[in-house]
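Ticket #4471: structure export looks truncated?
Reporter: QA, pipeline team
Priority: medium

Steps to reproduce: submit the single chain below to the structure queue and open the exported record.
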Amino acid sequence: MARTTISAVAQAVRFSVMRLSRTLRTEHSDPSISLTERSVLAALGRNGAMTPSALAERERMKAPSMTHVLADLESRRLIRRIPWESDRRCVDIALTEEGVAFVHGEQRQRTEWLSERISQLSHEEQEILRIAAPILEKLSAS
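Actual output as written to the record:
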């Protein structure tokens, strides 16, 4: 494929993925929880317990901002702090049962929304998406 064609494909995929991602982010059940807080909860759901600094780094946030986010999520009982056995001053942040339920509910709602949209596509378009999904995953992992 010619370089200009690759560039055009990259631009089209970037635009479509960003727009779809933005639309999916708006599909949520509790508008009082910010996108940043949702992102932190999702990261904990995917990766398990993490230190606040590791979580801040992963989410590309400064420590004071992460402290504020974690305090809010903890007050909502969506996360909990787990002190280290080796150094009680250090903690890991983990989802509570309520946090796990929240993350799963959000995932379920977004999957249902997307499933409904995909069901409206032709069988050929659905097959193309089935084939494209692992390719998009490969791109996101690189």
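Status: closed, not a bug. The export was complete when the record was re-opened. Leaving a note from the reviewer for reference: Residues 80 and 94 are 5 Å apart (CA to CA).
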